[in-house]
Design goal:
The structure holds 2 protein chains of 2 kinds. By secondary structure, chain A is mostly helical. In chain A, 67% of the residues lie in helices and 0% in strands. Chain A is flat and about 65 Å long. By secondary structure, chain B is mostly helical. Helices cover 64% and strands 2% of the residues of chain B. In chain B, 37% of the residues are buried. Classes of the chains: A mainly alpha, B mainly alpha.
């Protein structure tokens, strides 16, 4: 049972099966970390710089949706989905490499998965009362809240001013 | 505590331990071995527990933002609220750089390169400060446009309705009684210098009557706008469209086409900042509340991180401090992570 311990040091226990032996392996692992004795198996300046380059590239990609090069300017949903995909990729890169989660033992799931589930539930709980708040509104509220035709009115006013006085605008 | 874990002899697995228990007293003494509950140091465990609460904290904030935004009838475009995408993207870049420098500081400390670790730590501190500085600049741009989360500082109105019209009139009435000291240089005359300070003056009348040669070309255009606003506000046959024109003269909402090159159409509030007239941004109040809450809490987290780095800089950053640097780094990466989601959600959606 102790044979797989030494390869676990270098690759991390992610693919390991069998709880008792992996516990021993982690003790061994963290013991090394405390002494600051890095094998160079994880991290490494080159790898960090590669992740940095990827992060910069991804930021540029999400910024692309703002530029005139982006072909789906009239369909905002395409841009939103794209940006969220890019953000999730960036988040995974930061968590896995910079926060060393890739090389951590299985405790990482104990902490992150319940927190992530709670986070999702927190947001979902808001949908009925907050997200759908404008499904049914009182007449008075309807009078005072901003509505799409207010924006339209502002745009028409701006256009009328441009037509009347092109120099001022 | 991990040293005791090391004292387990190799090959001493669960079956052996079980065997010992069965023949309990046979050896005459029991060797107690302490094993930590989780295979990581206490500081790191606590940091990760803290981070898991932080995940929920920011998920609640981001979740409410998303729910509020997509449930709203109208939400302002980034240009309506004077957000600059290039500035936001640059700030993202700054935070990513600082994430790299803190990781490099940790690596240097692990390799016992004390001076290098200190330099990387200092670079992180400076980059974080740069982020906060840019954020402060952005905040001041919001404030100067009257975008605050709440009254009385906020000058945002949701729609060009009668309430908006009366708010503009109220502000104009206020401006008629401006203390003498606040009169802008272009509108002063010789008599003012002899008059006692603190007196009030009909500023708007002066703006109307100011000689054209004292005003620049832009200011003369602005005065034209001002006179149009006054005329439309007092028009007895006023239509909702007229109030939209008033709002457009005071602070125009940049259209998407013009906004793509960052164009900022100027209005009365830009020409004469002392006017501070109410503005119309449909959906702007909810936007301001969520924007300042999200970026404010993020900025507080950045500030706390900078404080931690400043404290760490007073230590000798050698191998013994690697654990501390790692924990501070974990926190900092999390702050970076939050911004990774905040940037597209606030600036690009």
């Amino acid at each position: 049972m102790s044979e797989p311990t030494s390869p676990a040091d270098s690759h991390g226990p992610i693919t390991r099966v069998g709880a008792p032996s992996s516990t021993v392996a982690h003790d061994h692992d963290s013991g090394h970390d405390d002494h600051g004795d890095d094998h160079g198996s994880h991290g490494g300046i080159g790898q960090y710089l590669a992740v940095f380059a990827a992060l910069c590239l991804l930021t540029t990609m999400s910024f692309l949706t703002y530029s005139s090069v982006w072909p789906w300017r009239d369909q905002p949903h395409v841009g939103w989905a794209f940006m969220m995909a890019v953000s999730c990729t960036k988040a995974m890169l930061v968590v896995l490499f910079f926060m060393h989660v890739l090389w951590e033992a299985n405790w990482k799931f104990v902490l992150t998965i319940p927190a992530a589930m709670m986070a999702i539930f927190l947001a979902l709980m808001l949908v009925p009362d907050v997200g759908l708040r404008n499904r049914m509104v009182s007449q008075e509220r309807l009078l005072h809240m901003a509505r799409p035709n207010d924006l339209l009115l502002m745009e028409q006013a701006a256009e009328a001013q441009v037509l009347a006085d092109p120099v001022a605008h | 505590m991990n040293a005791s874990a090391h004292s387990i002899p190799h090959g001493h697995d669960d079956r052996d331990a079980h065997g010992h228990d069965d023949h309990g007293g046979g050896h005459g003494h029991i060797v107690l071995q302490y094993q930590p509950g989780l295979p990581l140091s206490k500081g790191k465990l606590i940091m990760w527990l803290f981070l898991s609460t932080e995940i929920m904290f920011f998920a609640a904030l981001l979740g409410s933002y998303v729910v509020l935004r997509f449930g709203a009838a109208v939400w302002p475009k980034p240009h309506h609220v004077h957000l600059s995408e290039p500035i936001g993207a640059f700030n993202t870049f700054v935070l990513i750089c600082s994430s790299v420098t803190i990781v490099l500081a940790l690596e240097a400390a692990k390799a016992n390169k004390v001076a290098m670790a200190k330099n990387w730590m200092l670079a992180t501190l400076l980059l974080g400060s740069l982020f906060l500085g840019i954020k402060g600049y952005e905040y001041s741009a919001k404030f100067s446009h009257g975008i605050y989360p709440a009254q009385p500082h906020s000058r945002i109105y949701e729609k060009p309705d009668l309430y908006y019209g009366s708010a503009v009139r109220a502000r104009l009435d206020e401006l008629r009684k401006v203390p003498l000291g606040l009169v802008p240089a272009g509108l002063r005359d010789e008599a003012d210098s002899s008059a006692e300070a603190g007196g009030t003056v009909d500023l708007l009348k002066r703006l109307d009557e100011a000689p054209a040669e004292k005003l620049s070309a832009e200011q003369q255009t602005a005065r034209g706008r001002f006179q149009k606003v006054q005329k439309m506000l007092t028009n007895p046959g006023q239509q909702p469209f007229d109030l939209a024109v008033v709002a457009d003269q005071i602070m125009p909402l940049p259209s998407e086409g013009a906004g793509s090159h960052g164009g900022h159409a100027s209005g009365l509030n830009d020409d004469f900042p002392w006017l501070r007239l109410p503005t119309v941004i449909p959906g702007g109040n909810m936007w301001a509340s969520t924007y300042f809450l999200l970026t404010g809490f993020h900025a507080i987290h950045v500030a706390v991180g900078l404080l931690v780095f400043a404290i760490l800089l007073t230590y000798r950053l050698d191998r013994k401090r690697a654990g501390m640097i790692e924990n501070a780094g974990l926190y900092w990466h999390f702050v970076d992570l939050v911004w990774i989601f905040l940037f597209p959600l606030l600036y690009l959606f």
